[in-house]
Design goal:
Layout lengths: L8 H11 L3 E10 L3 H13 L5 E13 L5 E12 L8
Antiparallel strand pairs: 1-3, 2-3
Amino acid sequence: MGMYSTYNPKNFKQRLTSLIMVYKYIEIVGTSDTNITDAVNNAFKEASKTVKNIQWGELGKVTFRVSGEQKIEYQAEVKIGFKIERNDNLV
């Protein structure tokens, strides 16, 4: 019996499916009137309402805006990465 004697197409498909992973990221801007951390958290909270499988995040540019009353709005650009779901029947 050689090494190919135990080949099973179904097992091969399951192993192949578990090895193929594709990720995507979106860039969004979170805001807060209090601080940068809250701006990042607000971005994540909003994204998680519609984006599934969030795996990572990356903080980009941090900015702020000053209103006429000298109030500061903190703005945080955030990349949010997530795993792409797919229909395993297509493999």
